[in-house]
Fold this sequence. Notes:
alpha/beta; 8 strands; 46% helix
Amino acid sequence: MPLVPMRLLLDHAAENNYGVAALNVNNMEQIQAIMEAAQETESPVIVQASRGARKYSQDNYLRHLMLAAAELYPSLPIVMHQDHGNSPATCKSAIENGFTSVMMDGSLGEDGKTPSDYAYNVKVTKEVTEAAHAQGVSVEGELGCLGSLVTGEGEKEDGHGAEGKLTRDQLLTDPEEAAQFVEATNVDALAVAIGTSHGAYKFTSKPTGEVLAMDRIEAIHKRLPNCHLVMHGSSSVPQELQDIINKYGGKLRQTWGVPVEEIQRGIKHGVRKINVDTDSRLAITGAIRKVFAESPEKFDPRDYLKPAREAMKEVCKARMIAFGQAGWASKIKPVSIDKYKSYYK
Length: 345
Ligand code: 13P
């Protein structure tokens, strides 16, 4: 199946009330883990790469790996998405490199750390939407700054994230402004700020509604019932993955992520794309640490990359099942981005 635009998957998810995990990658093993998880659960797939990931792995490698995935798993619809594009130029270069969906994160300036204003956000996002839609590519925008309602600070994802203290207003997307933003930019999906942040250290105890504002999702969905919402920073940071890392020599501080049942609540209220990166990283690191600790004589990378890939696959499978995307792959009729150009109005 050709790589498909993200709008195709999110529209199907909305029609059938489920969410799709958007899983970050940096290398071949992570792509393999996601594809095997999708194959075993018959799930549609969103693979995403940040700017940092594109730099680390190089666009040519990434593009060919994703085309290989499409060839190896012909029954699965696959989206290749740019995570947190910092400028129209970044998004346009992603489109040139075969991405079928891009995020223009205009909530921050081009430096990827300074909160921007509404007018700037609309301007750059609209520019990207016009260019992307003309190529059949889908667009995610962001309104509100991702960051913790506990500390008032953003956490960087691959160098991208707000710096300094943010106000509660900046950290929570306003439903009315969201409606204006979607109208003005014509985005296909909107990332909202509700107190989630990137990385392992999201909450200092199991989150309550004070620090994880799921009621904000409900309010935005009520105001914008036809817009696909995106939850960033949505790793659950499972205790068992923290324990494996610490058992084998790691030094993670006790921490809490976004409980899967809260994400399921979001899915009931318009959340269609759920970004998960940290959980995969934790699974990989735990598995590698275990091999190093238990078999220090080993030095063939396959001896630790195989269990690492397997551990990430299990996390991906669990999320695909929990978010409800499992079983839907064969029900989605593939449409290539070329044929999708006329879809966007
Ligand atoms: P996590 O760090 O919670 O996995 O979030 C990843 C993310 O939102 C990527 O954009």
